[in-house]
Structures are given as C-alpha cells and as structure tokens.
Amino acid sequence: MTLTLQIKARMFSLFSLISLIMIPVICKQDWQVQYSSMMKCALKGSAIHLSGSYKHPNYLTVTERFWIVNPIKDKEPVNLLNHPDYSGRVQYSPDKEQTCVLKLSNVTHEDEGMYCLKIVAKEDKYLFFPGIDLKVTELRVEIPEEVVEGESSVLVCKTTCNLSDKTNFTWYKNSKSLSESIDSYQLLLQSVSSDDSGNYSCAVRDQKHLLSPAVTLSVRYPPKSVSVSISPSGEIVEGDSVTLSCSSDSNPPALNFSWFKENQNSAVGSGQSFIISSFNSSHSGRYYCEAQNKHGSQRSASVSVTSAERGQTAVLYAAAGIGAALICICIIIVVIKTISRKTGDAGGKSSISKQEENISTAVTDQTSAKPPKTADPNDLVYASITHSRPREQQRAGDEDEVQYATVQHHRNTRNTTAEAECQYGNTASAGSNTEKAEDSDVIYSSIKYA
Fold first, then answer.
1. Paired sense of beta strands 236-237 and 307-308, if any
2. What is the DSSP string of 388-445?
3. pLDDT score of 124 more than 90
4. What is the CA radius of gyration of the chain?
5. Does 35 or 376 have the greater pLDDT score?
6. Beta strand spans in 106-254 (E)
7. Mean pLDDT value across the chain
8. Tell me, what's the pLDDT at 436?
C-alpha cells in the first residue's frame, strides 16, 4: 500500500513538472514574427527597406509597433522616429496584414547595427530579438597591379558585403558608360592595348548616381613611334655643333637609348641626345636611334646628316645678294615709269592750250582777210567761236570760259593789202601806231570753251 502511494506521488510530481514546462510554450505558440531577411547589405547613400510581419494571440490588443536599433538589456529602447541620429530619414509604411516596413534613406556607416521590431499591447510589451543585421558598404574597383599590352585583364567591382544575387552593375570608362550588355561585377578586357588605358568606375544599375571612385588603368607597352630630330635644322656648316634627339612613346618611359650610324656595326653613342661638337665631313651619314624599356625596344627611321662646304655657302650668299640687287633695280624702274607717265599727262595739257591759241589766231586771220566794207570804215565785227575739248581732259566742275580778243585791222591808202595780227587781250599790230584808230576796223572775237 505504501509502495502504491509512493508511485502515485511520483507520477503526480512528474505530471506537474511537465505541465509547468509546457505552459510557456503553449502561450508563446500564438506569437509569430518573421523578418524579410536576417542580414541586409546597403550601399552608402542609398535608401533601404526593412520589413517584419507578425501574428499575436487573440487575447492581446496591439496599440503600437515601431523599430529600434541595437537594443540594450534593462534599457528602454527608443523609437527610430524619435531618435536624433535618424531625424528626417525614417518612414513607416502603412500597416498591411500586420506588417511593419521601415524605410531608411541616405544610409551611412553609422547606421550599421541590429534592427528589431517592438510591439506594445495593452497587456504587455514585446521585443523580438534578434532582428535584421544591417551592413553598409561602398563600391570600389580592383585592377591588377600591372597590365601589359597583349595580355588579358579582369577588373572587379567589389563590396564589403553581398548586396544581392540579382544585382546588376554598370561599368564606366572616363565617365562614359560602357556597353549595357556588360552587367556583371567583373569586366574582362581581352588582348589589352594602350587604348584601354583610362579611369574606370562601376555602379549598381538601379543606383547609377552612386558610382565608385575612379581607378586608373595604366597599360604597359614597349617603345613605339620612335623618331629622331636634328638641331639646328637646315644646312650644317663644318665646325658647327649638331645635336640629335631621340623621342618615343612608351610606358614606362624608355630609359635606354643607343645611337647607330649606318654601315657601322657598333653603337656610336648613348643617351636620349647625341651631340657632335665639331661637325666635319667624316661625320656625314645616316643616323638612327633605338629606345628600350623593360617590355621591349624599337628603332627609329634613319635620318641624313650632311654638311655644306664653305665655298658652297659663299656661292649661296652671293646668289642671294644678286637676287636682292635685281629686286631693287626692278623697283627703281617701276618708280621711273610712274613718274614719266605723270609728266606725260602734264605735257598733254600744255599742247591742248597751244592748239586753242592757234585756233584763235586762225579765226582772226580769216576775219581780216575779208574785203573791207565801204559803207563804214569803222564797223565792228563780232565773232563767236565754240571750241570743244575732249571730255576726259575737261576738269570736273569747270564752268564755261569766255575770252575776248580785240583785233585791229589796218589798210593802207591804196587798199591793196591788209595786215592783221591777233593776240589775246587788247593788242596792236607791231608795224603800226595804236592811236590811228580812224583807219582801222575793230573785231571782237568771243571764244567759248565747251
């Protein structure tokens, strides 16, 4: 009997213990909280969304729900809406099927931490930990330490955390977008050339405003475009100093230069410049240089270096002097011809004046040759003569000019001869006295120049 009682007592204790253990489990089974993810990676400067959905027991009445960051035991957490470090950057989306969504904009590295959902009911407060672990990263481009022309190279757009498996990237060279078909976080350059050198950056395709810092890709290649320049240029006189300079395009810059003269087996000099201090005929020939760096070498085309003898130089100077003298002579001839032409124009005007005088004299003679009138020995005869000059000789703006000539005509007592002489102005015949006007006729001539 005693044994039976002891067994029943032990069984009751066991059932009581099991009941005490199961009661909290039964109560907690009515709470269900699920976060969108347990880890979130965000780009610095971007905007993110953190989501949490929940189900609560039917006997509870929810009054408030909000997000907190980095909860501390025995310390009341602060709603992010009221947190001074998140002012103006936090928004809660409207409740939908008991879901609380946090939108955090302009994410910074200081925002990293654990974000948890807290629900306040009339009966109690509930904090659901752990929450979402937020990491903040930036984009950066990694390139190989050395890229040699002709080889292949891979550029990688890296982050400190995994953004998403569906993240697409955009690549830029010198701030210009490359092909849209390239959406991987890796950029493959096959058979690299010097044209591939430049500044490369990357961005997430849906956040192109958040570019990574640009990284310079410098492609290494052997010397190319090697050439030689001569100073001084032109004819070289014996005894002058001559400098040959070698230039090339290479990366890294060529440091080793060798100089050669055609038809000679060994180098005649080294260094980027080759100087011949006192040039003579033995130095004449064709020269070329060879530039070299650690990736290869290349030679230039040959250039001809010759000297002009002093006798030839003197001939050139003499020829130049003769040419200058001929030019001066031509200039003098042109000046003389110009002066002669102007003098000829002046002479032409003088001859025209003489012709006008001859015409006036002829008219006077013709008038005096007429038989004298018996009616009145002192009759006056007026003659109007119009003289036309070529229009090109008439000065612009000239007005009509009228000149008068007084002609005294003397007849002897026999009336057999008449002598007349015409002058411009009031003149008398050379062989008569001017006072004997009673025996003469006076003729006035009016000459008009048109």
1. parallel
2. ---GGGSPTTPPP-EEEEEEEEEE-TT---EEE---SEE---TTS-TT-GGGEEEEEE
3. no
4. 61
5. 35
6. 113-121, 125-137, 140-142, 147-148, 153-158, 169-173, 176-177, 186-189, 198-204, 215-217, 219-231, 236-237, 242-251
7. 76
8. 38
